[in-house]
Amino acid sequence: MTTTMDLPENFNEDKKELIDYAYQRVVPRPMSFADLGGVWGVDGAYTRYTLQRYGATRAVLVDTNFTDKVLQVAPSFPSLTLVKGNFGDPATAEKVGNVDAIFMFDVLLHQVKPDWDQVLAMYAPRTKIFVVYNQQWVGSRRTIRLVDLPRDQYFANVPADRTAAPYSFLFEKMYEMNTEHGRIWRDVHNIWQWGIVDRDLIDCLDHLGFTMQLYKNCGHFGELQNIQNHAFMFQKR
User: Which residues fall within 8 angstroms of residue 65, CB to CB, at 6 or more apart?
Assistant: First the structure.
């Protein structure tokens, strides 16, 4: 079995603390979990950490693409199922099924049609715990759709190189079809979409029957003044 020594250098301690809190402080302890969109940049590191440290009767790792590393280590974990698809698709949610905890790390700001709050509503009946780490908006009192900003303001508020794909042509192709995803460029999930404020996220999950049990401001995202990394854990009432 893989060990924690296989985890990447960019393994985030704040996300680890979120997982540890859910498994060490929540009663009853989660026995199953799903990691939504947990492959990109980390090769499913938080799924692997949870399985190595705590085990699971059932674990689900969901993403649109799986790296060679994920495919290599997955057979080491008999309880792990890989689900290929966009987790915002109701058909993918059906494959995930019911789990005790859902991890959503760095993904809510990307969710469009269904939007981030609709995705939470889709999974709320399927879980008891949401473990959320997201780049939150602190530039205004309300949530905004970042792609509605003028071009210069958009690039001043996202960690994107405006000269590199897909951002180099985003504003020119905003309403053109992206054939890979079957939707217009404005609505693809691999660009920064939302500036979500804490109050809207907390209110959304409160409306869905979840109470915030943990909150941590983890600091600014790079040099972006209007974006901060915030960590949350919500438990169903």
Answer: 39, 40, 84
